[in-house]
Design goal:
It contains 56 helices and 27 strands. It is α+β, with helices and mostly antiparallel strands. The protein has a five-stranded mixed beta sheet, with helices on both faces. It has a five-stranded mixed beta barrel with strand order 13-17-18-20-19.
Length: 1489
């Protein structure tokens, strides 16, 4: 299939000409024209080469954003990878289907091809040549598919018609080389070939390279041998004479590069990436390794036995033995015994040395991992293997650096020993020992980081000289080797071989050599002096003073580790200040400065010691506690608003992530401490005891004081901040990992559901993935939107759909609406009659879904009764309710728009929810695409705080595990595009390999009839085939008409390596003798029909036999084979069940247990009063009561009627319909669509007989939830003032165990005090001003509020401020009841009463200052834009001012979906707000701009 591309007319003509057949005359003319063009350019071959290099460089520069420039090493690697994968060069190029795939993913914008400059004709010719080759190769492939011949070399006539430049590749006899077809015939593998690969004599050593490469590799090897054996010829001038074949090969290579470059010019880099057609994607696709192995940040490399042992030990300690520092839920089977190390090693061996992915190991290597390791543990090992690679890489690099520096230090000591013994002594005392043993024992990245930091602080200045010394040694070693070589050759007197020479110019003296190497390495002779404080101390030579402190850092570390003074402190006999006098210098001019610098230097050195850090880090982690308090901006973490001394191991699940986000948003502050607030003893005191000399002389006490200061500085400045950051990162990572696990669990719960099956469908052997026929209905709560019903075939294809524009009309008050609505239901009924679905599903948007479900159930029941075709159905058609979250996401996604570009969003939603019912795994996998739209689904409330890549990896692992458990039918992926996205999760594949695999079979119009086709007909390598073969299933029942050999075991989970065992089990189960002529395939077919025969097999004895024949332990595999022969590809997913009442409640209200629970404070609207009808005795005994306020008589029962005389009252009592009855409660409506009921006794703390005395219709009130009825979508509420305040906190969320109530009380008292002071300040008198402006008034706030009450929105009054005489206040009206005050600062005032010439307004949030010249400018440029914004908000259709009651469209019953949606989208500009976290009311202003 060709893809039309927009290009200029010249390219179109060239493409049409090249796609047609060329005569000999036309070919000669074209060749002559090309020669003429080349001759006109007057360039030699060398110039051509230079020009080609320039073009390549320009192209590489142009494409550097998405294709890396491969170096020499990368080119060699690419060649090796291509030969290993066995894929031909033709597959590297972009064919028409590749370009079509990219073009399909493009947007509708117009593509442009610019042809400019002097070489435009040549570029046109290159483009035409490219199109010719693409068309020719595509035609050749089609021809090969139609005319498959056993010997391609004899088919001479068929290839002349499609001749191109590749035919000019000739052999030594100037004959065209034979070309092998890279597209195999569909029927290539006959029975003999299949037996040769997976025959009776079992051997899994398939020569994949031979199958893939064919004759092409032989040709390439011959060409390489010819190139190696061919000796260059020279002309008279000494220039190399190239043969014609060499020139032609170079031209072909250049044209191939041009073709790739042209494709890259036609499409944007993002489009190539989206189609997985970049050079990097092609390389990944060709390499015979699992795609996910190649995409991992740290590559998977082979490992030796010793490294596997070490890594298994490291992973066991870090992943399975080490516990988290916070309180995280632990799985029951997480704890592992010591025996699991061997199984971890086995898993690592399969991953690193055999390149097996996790699902393959979990399914086909169970004997070596079970029962200790499950698939989740294998994924953990996979992740920790990457961490090990990083750890080992850093460890090896640091060890190499240690060894290099150790050699250089020995060289330094030798030099100093010969020249300056005093300097040598000082250096030996002050240098830090390079502790290789500690590095060898290091087991964490923190320990390596400690050693690296210590090394760089001590030896960073020596690194340039070390590199210089190494280069000098390399130079001398090289020269010595050459001299030795010359001497050996002179002794051998070999005259045939010329002697290498050593030029005199290369004989450099030491100084000149060092100078040249300095320039080469960019090392300055006198490096710039560092200005950091430690370097300044070092330059002042304070190391001598520091060593007099009495103990080196490593000795202190030993004291701390052993918890006693293992190393005695050397006491210097002179006092500290006296000792400092000899170190006074320019940088430190007095003894006090010298002492402070020495303390800093020693504290820094102590903090760098790895053992000191190890001990203090361990204690810091065990003792660390957190204090937290809110800022003035708010407090989102209500349960942890104030915490004091909360140990870090008490943070559970995602608590710390919530707290950290609040700190990040500036809503809270936290503090890390390790000592209790009331404790008299600190951890610093314990450390000081290890560095204190136990004497009481004045000199010792002074030095002890200095040492204590070093310890305090070491802890407070260096170690505690570092450990605090480490603790915070660990706590944050553990909380994020919990959220990631919850997201994965949520996704796994969604995709573990099996496709919907009919009740009588017992076909759980899923060799055929065909599902049920679904009628899906998607309606909208918006009356202006159209609803749709769509019928999906059993394969998920759209068969037909209908529009239902009036399905959701309200028919209570309009006969016309009722007629329109009935017409839509009649259309649905006709649709059902025509298509006869197996099931009907309705997407739940609101409570209207319950009405639709009931109405459709009645319709189906009526059809079942009246229509004969429905009576003959196996079972009645079911009507199901389903969630719409996935369907809505798909409808709005880029994937959905590209799949159904002409369909409206609501119709796409109906298609998606129907397909989800057919197979949830397939439909969810649709969103795991290039755009990663799976993240649009909300799996966890804190999902957005997680790193995107980490979350995607975890979700991908869920898809991989579930997909390989279920299996994928490749033929179905080829036939139905919406099922192909799941193929990327098959073991060994990925998006690139899966896309190319499907494209290959589509191009050849072929099917996968045998698993060996993946090797024979498709260039798949051994490694990838081994990984994916068992998980790609084939419906062999549908292949009975095929002429190819059909392997019936391909319809099972049995891996091809175990086919012989399965055949033997079938033969043994049927008791077939060896002399029988019955084929094993026939035995297998009979076993599939009578699987009970397998129960009699002694599989344990068979396992022992295999173990004795060097096949190893296969005991579990044999039982899996028997289970698979009994039930082929049995679907192990959970059977579909209808939504529970809890699920429906969530679907309709969108509430969760975290957002809707007992004790929650909510807003609700009164819409009715509940009354109990009066009995006859009550009416007869009723006596009218007089209302003292009005003087009228009233009914003592209903309390609503007013009577002027007794007669009217008795008529009211005698009538059975007039008296409404005794009020018993208030009915309210919630925003989520639920209804609420407040009993009369829960309405107020005081006794209420008439609810109208407390609330009115349509009034918004506050209430707390005391009971939830999920089935009825109703709640019981209380609106008592005591319950709303909840002083005893019985209904609020429980506060943390370390909650600081004292601090909260103090802050509340301080806030109240500040509020009172502000109120008093407002009531202070102000200075009257003399300002001539129409908006200025000498009034206070109360008078201003009274005046603005009658003004329009946006009107403002300028008045004196109570702050000071140089302040003004501008009060402007936002909405009714909401005023906003703006403080204006006056500058350049002539006197106290006049207006300042400069007016300043400071933004209270950003502290930005804006200056104005006069009041008119403020009103026009500052107030007016805000007023316009508010006007736009208040004029919006969803705006409501809650100071006024909301009108109710329905006097009784539940809220309509449109009203519910409208109330959810209201903008609340009101004074009384409810805090969603503490469930308390705060009187604050909320201003929205």
């Amino acid at each position: 299939m060709s893809k039309k591309r927009q290009r200029n007319a010249f390219l179109d003509e060239q493409a049409e000409e090249d796609s047609a057949e060329e005569s000999d005359t036309e070919k000669k003319q074209r060749v002559a024209a090309m020669k003429k063009l080349k001759s006109n350019r007057q360039m030699s071959d060398d110039d051509d080469d230079d020009e080609e290099e320039e073009i390549d460089e320009a192209t590489a520069t142009e494409l550097k954003n998405f294709i890396a420039d491969p170096g020499d090493d990368e080119e060699d690697e690419i060649v090796n990878d291509q030969s290993a994968s066995g894929e031909s060069d033709d597959d590297d190029d972009f064919d028409d289907d590749d370009l079509a795939l990219v073009a399909e993913s493009k947007s509708t914008r117009k593509k442009r091809v610019q042809i400019e400059g002097e070489d435009s004709d040549e570029e046109d010719q290159q483009a035409a040549s490219q199109h010719e080759r693409i068309s020719t190769s595509h035609t050749r492939r089609d021809n090969a598919d139609r005319h498959s011949a056993p010997n391609d070399d004899n088919d001479d006539g068929g290839n002349e018609e499609f001749e191109d430049d590749d035919d000019f590749i000739v052999d030594d006899e100037n004959q065209p080389l034979p070309k092998s077809s890279h597209r195999r015939s569909q029927n290539a593998p006959n029975i003999a070939e299949a037996q040769a690969i997976f025959g009776d004599d079992f051997s899994f050593n398939i020569d994949f390279d031979e199958l893939n490469d064919g004759e092409e590799d032989e040709e390439e090897e011959e060409d390489e041998e010819d190139e190696e054996q061919e000796e260059p010829e020279y002309d008279d001038d000494g220039n190399i004479i190239e043969s014609e074949s060499t020139v032609v090969k170079r031209q072909v290579k250049r044209k191939t590069q041009r073709r790739k470059q042209k494709a890259e010019e036609l499409f944007e880099p993002e489009e190539l990436q989206r189609g997985y057609l970049t050079e990097a994607d092609i390389n990944i696709r060709q390499i015979d390794k699992p795609e996910r192995f190649q995409l991992r940040h740290t590559p998977v490399v082979e490992a030796k036995e010793d490294e596997l042992e070490e890594e298994a030990e490291w992973i066991y300690n870090g992943a399975f033995l080490k516990s988290t520092i916070s309180s995280q839920p632990v799985d029951e089977d997480t704890t592992k015994n010591l025996q699991v190390k061997k199984k971890i090693k086995n898993a690592l061996n399969y991953i690193r040395n055999d390149s097996f992915e996790v699902p393959f190991i979990a399914f086909y290597r169970k004997e070596h991992i079970e029962p200790d390791l499950k698939i989740q543990d294998l994924w953990k090992i996979w992740q920790w293997d990457e961490k090990w690679m990083i750890f080992k890489s850093q460890k090896d690099k640091l060890m190499l650096m240690f060894e290099r520096m150790d050699k250089y230090r020995n060289y330094q000591y030798e030099q100093l020993g010969d020249t300056n013994e005093e300097a040598l002594t000082t250096k030996l005392l002050t240098d830090c020992d390079i502790d290789k043993d500690r590095l060898m024992r290091a087991q964490t990245l923190e320990e390596i980081a400690d050693l690296r930091e210590q090394f760089h602080v001590y030896y960073n200045a020596d690194l340039p000289n070390m590199r210089l010394r190494e280069k000098v040694l390399e130079y001398h070693e090289e020269r010595d080797k050459r001299k030795k070589l010359i001497a050996n050759m002179e002794q051998n007197d070999n005259d045939d071989q010329p002697l290498p020479t050593i030029d005199d110019e290369e004989e450099l003296d030491e100084e000149t050599l060092i100078e040249q190497l300095r320039v080469q390495l960019n090392i300055k002779a006198q490096p710039l002096q560092k200005t950091d404080y430690y370097s300044v101390c070092k330059q002042a030579h304070l190391e001598g003073l520091v060593k007099k402190f009495g103990l080196k850092s490593d000795k202190l570390g030993e004291n701390l580790y052993e918890n006693y003074q293992k190393n005695e402190i050397d006491q210097y006999p002179i006092g500290p200040l006296a000792t400092c006098e000899e170190f006074i210098c320019k940088q430190f001019p007095n003894t006090q400065a010298v002492l402070q610098a020495a303390i800093f230097m020693h504290a820094r050195q102590l903090s760098l010691d790895p053992l000191v850090r190890y001990v203090i880090r361990r204690e810091y982690t065990s003792r660390c506690m957190i204090n937290a308090q809110p800022t003035r901006l708010g407090y989102p973490c209500y349960t942890m608003k104030y915490i004091l001394g909360k140990p870090i191991n008490t943070f559970a699940k995602d608590q710390f992530l919530n707290l950290h986000q609040a700190v990040k948003d500036g809503l809270m502050t936290i503090e890390y401490v390790i000592d209790s607030k009331n404790s008299q003893h600190t951890y610093a005191d314990d450390i000081k005891r290890s560095y204190t000399r136990d004497e009481y002389s004045d000199n010792v006490l002074e030095w002890n004081k200095i040492r204590a200061m070093c310890i305090d500085l070491m802890l407070t400045k260096f170690l505690y901040p570092k450990f605090q950051r480490e603790i915070e990162e660990i706590l944050l990572d553990e909380a994020k990992q919990y959220v990631i696990k919850q997201c994965s669990k949520s996704l796994n719960d969604l995709i573990k559901v099996a496709p919907f099956r009919l009740s009588n469908d017992e076909n759980i052997t899923s060799i055929s993935d065909a599902g049920v026929r679904v009628l899906s209905i998607a309606y909208s709560t918006d009356l202006d939107d159209v609803s749709y019903a769509v019928i999906l075939s059993s394969e998920g294809q759209v068969m037909d759909f209908i529009r239902l524009p009036n399905l959701m009309l309200r028919d209570h008050y309009s006969p016309d609406n009722r007629m329109k609505k009935d017409k839509d239901f009649e259309a649905i009924q006709t649709f059902i009659k025509q298509r006869v679905p197996d099931v009907i599903c309705i997407g739940v948007e609101s409570r209207d879904a319950l009405y639709l479900c009931k109405r459709l159930e009645e319709m189906v029941s009526q059809l079942q009764h009246d229509e004969e075709q429905f009576q003959n159905l196996p079972e009645p058609i079911k009507v199901l309710l389903c969630d719409t979250e996935l369907a809505k996401t798909y409808a709005q996604s880029r994937k959905g728009e590209s799949d159904f570009r002409d369909y409206p969003a609501k119709l796409r939603q109906a298609i998606s929810q129907g397909r989800r019912l057919q197979d949830p795994l397939l439909e969810f996998s649709q969103l795991f695409n290039y755009d990663k739209e799976i993240l649009l689904i909300k799996f966890h409330p804190l999902q957005d705080l997680i790193d995107r890549e980490q979350l995607l990896v975890s979700l991908e692992q869920c898809f991989i595990a579930r997909t390989n458990e279920v299996g994928v039918d490749l033929n179905r992926c080829i036939a139905f595009a919406h099922t192909a996205n799941v193929l990327q999760f098959v073991c060994g594949l990925g998006p690139r390999k899966a896309t190319h695999l499907v494209k290959h079979f589509k191009q050849n119009n072929a099917q996968l009839e045998n698993r060996t086709f993946l090797v024979v007909n498709y260039p798949m390598g051994k490694c990838v085939f081994s990984n994916c073969a068992g998980f790609i299933k084939i419906n062999t029942d549908a292949m009975k008409e095929s002429n190819s050999y059909i392997e019936i075991l391909d319809s099972t989970r049995i891996h091809p390596e175990a086919y012989d065992w399965a055949r033997k089990m079938a033969v043994d189960a049927l008791d077939i003798e060896e002399s029988s002529e019955m084929e094993p395939s026939a035995a297998l077919e009979e076993i599939f029909q009578n699987s009970e025969r397998l129960k009699d097999l002694d599989l344990d004895a068979f396992a022992v036999e295999l173990k004795n024949t060097m096949y190893g332990d296969q005991s579990i595999t044999l039982y899996d084979i028997r289970a698979e022969l009994t039930h082929r590809y049995r679907d192990v997913r959970v059977r579909y069940e209808q939504p529970s009442p809890e699920d429906l409640f969530h679907f309709i209200t969108k509430e969760t247990p975290e957002t809707f629970h007992l004790g929650k404070l909510i807003q609700c609207q009164v819409f009715d009063f509940a009354r109990r009808p009066p009995t006859l005795e009550q009416r007869e005994g009723a006596q009218p009561e007089k209302d003292e306020a009005t003087g009228l008589l009233k009914c003592p029962l209903c309390h609503t009627e007013r009577f002027h005389n007794v007669k009217e009252a008795w008529n009211h009592f005698d009538s059975t319909n007039k008296c409404k009855g005794i009020p018993v409660g208030v009915r309210v409506r919630l925003d989520n669509g639920c209804t609420g009921f407040i009993k009369l006794r829960d309405l107020s703390d005081s006794q209420v007989t008439n609810p109208l005395d407390r609330v009115k219709l349509n009034q918004i009130i506050y209430a707390r939830i005391i009971n939830i009825n999920i089935k009825q979508f109703s709640v019981d509420l209380t609106s008592k003032s005591s319950d709303l305040r909840d002083d005893k906190e019985r209904r609020r969320p429980q506060k943390d165990a370390f909650y600081d109530h004292t601090r909260e009380t103090d802050d509340l008292a301080e806030a109240e005090k500040e509020k009172q002071s502000q109120q008093a300040a407002k009531e202070r008198s102000f200075v009257k001003r003399v300002i001539a402006h129409p908006s200025f008034m000498n009034i206070n706030y109360n008078e201003c509020e009274r005046i603005l009450a009658t003004k329009d929105l946006g009107d403002a009054i300028v008045r004196p401020s109570s702050k000071a005489a140089d302040h003004l206040t501008i009060t402007w009206k936002l909405v009714d009841g909401v005023l906003h005050n703006i403080d204006v600062i006056e500058k350049s005032k002539t006197n106290q009463f006049s207006l300042g010439k400069r007016l300043l307004i400071i933004d209270p949030r950003t502290q930005d200052t804006e200056e104005f010249e006069d009041l008119d400018e403020i009103l026009a440029r500052y107030i007016k834009p805000m007023a316009n914004t508010v006007a736009d908000i208040t004029s919006h259709k969803y705006y409501r001012n809650l100071a006024q009651p909301l009108p109710s469209a329905t006097p009784s019953g539940s809220a309509t979906p449109a009203q519910t949606q409208q109330r959810r989208q209201q903008l609340y500009l009101h004074q009384h707000l409810v805090c969603p976290h503490c469930q308390m009311m705060h009187k604050e202003f909320l201003i929205i701009f």
